[in-house]
Amino acid sequence: MRRLARLILRGVLPGDVRETIVADLDAEFDRRRGSTGWYVRQVAGSIAPALVMRTRRLARAAADAAQDARFGVRLLVRQKTFTIASVLTLALGIGANTCIFSLVDRVLLRPLPYAESSRLLRIWSANPRGIPRGAIAPADFFDWREQSRSFESLAAYTDTDVTLTSAGEPVQLPAAQATANLTATLGVSPMIGRWFAPAETVGEGQPVVVLGERLWRSRFGGVPMIEGRTIVIDGIPRGVVGVMPDAFAFPSRDARLWLPLPDKWRSQTRSARFLAAVGRLAPGVTLDAAAAELRPIARRLESAFPDTNRGYGVTVASLTDAVVGDVRRPLLVLLAASLAMLLIACANVSGLMLARGAARTRELAIRAAVGASASRLLRQQFVEAMLIAVLGGAAAVLAAAWGIGVLRASLTVDVPFLDRVSMDGRVLAGAAAITVICAIVSGLFPAWRASRQPGSEALGGGSRTTRGHVRVRQAIVVTQIAVATALACGALLLARSLERLTSVPAGFAADRTLLADVSLPARRYKPDTRAAFFDRALDRLRAMPDMQAAGAGGPLPLSGQEGLLRFGVTQDRRTDPERAYVRWATPGYFAAMGIAQRAGRAFSAADRADSVPVAVIDEELARRLFGQEDPVGRRIQLSMNRAVWREVVGVVGAVHQTSLDRPAEPHAYLPETQLASTALTIVARSGGDPASVAAVLRRAVADIDPELALSNVRTLADLAAGSTRPQRQNTLLLGVFATAAVLLTLIGVYGVIAQIVAQSARELGVRLALGASGRSIVALTVRRALVMALIGVAAGSLVAAVAAPALRSMLYGIGPRDPLTFGLVIAILLASAAVAAYVPARRILRLDVLATLRVE
Question: Are residues 339 and 273 in the same domain?
Fold first, then answer.
């Protein structure tokens, strides 16, 4: 009991008082020989006054805080300009950070929405051309799965497009084909029904399908009895066995349904690589151990199948890195930019509060003279800063909610989980924390400065204090300029990089050209009937007025689709096999795409299935295979059909297949009539608006086959612009932050010069009275601003030079420390600072010397 009492006393009483009371009670306790009840009563009697005293202090502190808050509210209401400027500045900084934090939190900080996602890995086939993350041949995948022991399960999948002809008009949808163990590997379950059974992937696979929730609701009304219903996909009746929740979004958020991946694909040639794989590690197995086990398997396959697997290896990474790896650095750069803008916003508010504190020195001195302590003055000033921060935080939450909606609607790059970004509890907690930090950063120092104001100087109207405030504000503005310089350098680097990237010739002409994808069901369209469909559709287009050229081909340039196949060379000479992209084309395709004909001819109607096998190659492949020799008339061989040698009938210009920032890759084009494809893109180049062609094309396809649908109707210009969309969006977002930071900084420069002019009226009046010209004094004032700007841009340039390498992977054709970019930023900021300083400095020219000196 005595020990408990001591613990209670320790938490309530000060140390010296507690020890005195405990010593007295112990002595009395020993004298009375252990009267526990008495001891407890004495302890309670000792604690009660202390509790009452503490309660009174807390009540008095709460009353003082409430009084300070009421006074602060009245003051902020009276000073509307200051309040609105401060609240809007903080709302801009906090809102931008809350918006970006919500995106970073959802994409980078939270685990993937799969069970034990840390055990999930993504596996690729490493390409001998230096592409570490390439597609996998089905036969390789099945060998990996059977021979590895590091994985609890290993699943494969591939993207595809299908045509749905049930419950409405035919529509082409993005889909995926997957193995039966995909959901078990990821640790997810359907919301209705089940996933594929292993027996449904044997051989050709069973005609079943799993729908996505969005498709189930939009196309089938969300009826709960969808399981067991038969729908028609690509002309094949398939039974619906389940519905996956919208949160599944695998392999991408665009997937609308899933089909079984048939195991018969393992009998295909190993040169056909189109699968992706995901695995769940066995308990206790690490990523490095799994990779170490897969590499010997890949080497054994290379030895067993040298023609197709020579140089191929395995790349393994965590699924988290695979999903967010491409957007991690841009998001972190944006987060850093938003934090920099928040710092500038806090500095601006701090400068406003310093100026406000300088104007209130007399009021604070009077309050100190009548008994207010420095701590009370500090608390009052800080409460006012907290009120401003809370108002700014509330406005920021509303702005962030709007900004998140704008981000979700405008970010067209495939940012994972973008549709799940929202203002949830974590984001609101982050906004609250940022608000408190802003109150401390922007309000604590000005409050301390105001509370430390000597009363005699304030009441006497001395100018030393105002000069001190000006110097502090000058230091703040120098910091703002430094941060703005670093941000502007990053934004301008991205802008110049984008300019150079978009100036790279893509190899085709993108003006006035319409694109539309068509996928023919393989079971209804045999290889010898596919070309006839495209011929009929293209004939309808070519009959249109103003139609310059029409053709079909694919996959298109800048589509990002892989498909590297091994090539042999001419019969009369053997060299090492070369790799190239194999593409399909009909007559008119090259003219419609605007791909230049360098030599020979394009495909024509004479290139039929029963005629001589032919091919058109691009100038890059011609250079690699034949050097300076004329390739027309020579023969090449595809690894996918080694029994056929194809005559090269033409050479066309090189195009970029994956992106503009990579060199143009070699291509070989085959006529659709001789090696038919089920999926091609119709290309129509017209003399007028390409949108008018879409209606004609839709009618033509519907007339030929009512069960077919066009998909992905867009212009070739949209396709070309899409290849640089990530760079455009990174440049735009960072540019917005940099512009806002520069504007806030210039406002700070304006405020400092305005304060100098207002608080140096006597000095300026004396100078004018002694004969100085107004223009010379204006020039002196502007020079002061330029000195601040020079110090700021020097510090900011140094910061930018140190941090610039972080942007290296986001740049093209320009170094991260490009001198011209840094020079442009410095010149722009110096000129802007001079203008921002000149505007308030002009007031000097309107000074009344006699009135100024009389007042002073």
Answer: no
